Write a sequence for this structure.
């Protein structure tokens, strides 16, 4: 079975090359909507940190000794038009490798490409398989370009889109033109997503459900109802749907012209899951509390703001801010209850390399008071826990340069400096150097 899946991926890869070649030969004089398309990507991302000071270490601490870890992903993106406005998208994927310290010891994890560990060995995963129906509401139309999980089509600007199946919630929510793609932009997870949004996802980062969106020329509203994991960061979904699910809503406002356009997004979410309570765990055991012993069906809610602003075609800024109530255990994503990030991205036109890109970002994350108390007493989440806690906000600075020898290949050199790893002033700071090789068609 694995052999057959590998053969399918190879077939899809070479079919995608043919499809890309045919697309390049097509003239731009007459627009012809695509019936199908296929894209492919592969990313190799090694990361290294040297020794750093640590007064003590615990079960889920970042290793204070020198460490090297490499992740790998290969993904095919197949799209098919089945009828007017109706599409199906399928993404077979092979992830492999791990993050530093098996993706432990940081709230703002350093590798957004493999922020949730499935297996260090190559394994097949159906990343996405969903159907999408677009309902045009009439009026002015726009051309939507060919892309991963997007056929080149013309659609009414005023439209309703319904998506159902398996997907990643951050495919549709919390997007940002300058900080949302760990394969081509910033690598640290804090610049990829709003980390206080504990969004529903299995171990690989995907969920099952429905997303609906109403799009207008200057604004959009989208909402999703999806499944949550049965256990924290688990591979299986909780099928007790009446008590376990997640609601997500986002409002988006667009303003400005083509060269100075901006977008502002407001996100709100509620997770209903079989989660533990930090306070209940402390009440049960003031020393070495275990939040997993207090699990019951509870709610977690939070909010996020997301801003992007283009100064011109090559230069833009971004910022995010997020908050959740921080009372229940970290369930789906990472141990962050409050998060602020900002930064800038500049393309290389100024120095004669229009496809190159440089980015600089700053971020700070924090925990709720009860979450701090739980970790200080010796408690652990699924990815942090030093056995004690001298609390301080986790702070991140990241600088990257993306070199594009050709459009389909990106080579990145990246540096991250992290103060107070896992919110602990008794550990760090740590510097992380990354290389990234990315190919896509």
């Amino acid at each position: 079975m694995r052999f057959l899946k590998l053969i399918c991926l190879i077939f899809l890869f070479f079919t995608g090359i043919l499809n890309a070649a045919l697309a390049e030969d097509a003239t731009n004089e007459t627009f012809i909507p695509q019936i199908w398309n296929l894209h492919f990507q592969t990313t190799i991302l090694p990361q290294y940190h040297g020794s750093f000071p640590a007064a003590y270490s615990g079960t889920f601490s970042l290793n204070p000794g020198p460490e090297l870890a490499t992740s790998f992903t290969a993904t095919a993106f197949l799209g098919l038009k089945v009828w007017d406005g109706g599409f199906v998208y399928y993404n077979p994927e092979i992830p492999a490798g791990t993050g530093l310290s098996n993706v432990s010891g940081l709230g703002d994890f350093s590798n957004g490409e493999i922020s949730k560990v499935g297996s260090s060995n190559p394994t097949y995963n159906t990343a996405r398989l969903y159907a999408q129906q677009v309902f045009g509401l009439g009026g002015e139309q726009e051309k939507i370009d060919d892309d991963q999980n997007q056929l080149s089509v013309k659609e009414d600007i005023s439209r309703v889109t319904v998506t159902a199946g398996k997907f990643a919630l951050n495919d549709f929510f919390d997007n940002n033109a300058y900080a949302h793609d760990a394969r081509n932009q910033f690598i640290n997870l804090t610049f990829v997503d709003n980390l206080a949004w504990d969004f529903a996802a299995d171990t690989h980062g995907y969920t099952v459900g429905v997303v609906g969106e109403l799009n207008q020329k200057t604004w959009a509203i989208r909402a999703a109802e999806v499944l949550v994991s049965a256990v924290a960061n688990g591979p299986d979904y909780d099928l007790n749907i009446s008590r376990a699910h997640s609601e997500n809503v986002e409002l988006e406002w667009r303003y400005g012209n083509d060269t100075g356009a901006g977008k502002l997004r407001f996100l709100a979410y509620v997770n209903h899951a079989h989660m533990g309570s930090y306070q209940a765990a402390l009440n049960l055991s003031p020393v070495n509390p275990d939040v997993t012993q207090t699990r019951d069906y509870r709610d977690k809610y939070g909010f996020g703001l997301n801003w992007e602003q283009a100064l011109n075609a090559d230069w833009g800024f971004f910022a995010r801010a997020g908050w959740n109530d921080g009372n229940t255990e970290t369930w789906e994503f990472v141990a962050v209850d409050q998060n602020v990030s900002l930064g800038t991205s500049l393309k290389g036109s100024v120095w004669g390399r229009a496809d190159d890109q440089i980015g600089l970002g700053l971020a700070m994350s924090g925990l709720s008071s009860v979450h701090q108390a739980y970790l200080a007493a010796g408690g652990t989440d699924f990815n942090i826990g030093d056995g004690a806690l001298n609390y301080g906000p986790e702070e991140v600075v990241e600088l990257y340069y993306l070199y594009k020898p050709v459009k389909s290949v990106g080579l990145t050199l990246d540096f991250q400096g992290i103060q107070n790893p896992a919110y602990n002033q008794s550990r760090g700071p740590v510097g992380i150097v990354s290389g990234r090789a990315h190919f896509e068609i």
About this structure: The chain has a mean pLDDT of 92. The domain at 2-26+35-440 is CATH 2.40.160.10 (Porin).
